[in-house]
Amino acid sequence: MLEANLLLIKKTNTTKNILKWAILCAYTKECIEPTGSSLSCTPEARTPPGMCHRQDQSIFNILIVNLEVRLRKSGNNNLLAHNSADHPKNLQQRHQTRRAQHTSNEITNCTN
Fold it and tell me: Where does the record place the region Disordered (predicted)?
């Protein structure tokens, strides 16, 4: 899942459309927080797929996946989908940190 900590968005008709639907979703409780969804899902809880719902992150992921599907169907084969194994976010990171990890914890050194 993409994280929504910071988004840099170029102003285009496509991004305006994504933001419009994200805002409309944010105003609809069933969209922003579906019944039965949970913000914190642990592996031990064996939460059913789709029930871990990070509100803003989930909105953008759903909208972006829908856009990627439409672009693929329209013949755009140069698209590097965010869930593709070749996408930079899915490649080995130089530093891997986890949620709630304190800065005093050791972070793996960069190696070239």
Answer: 78-112
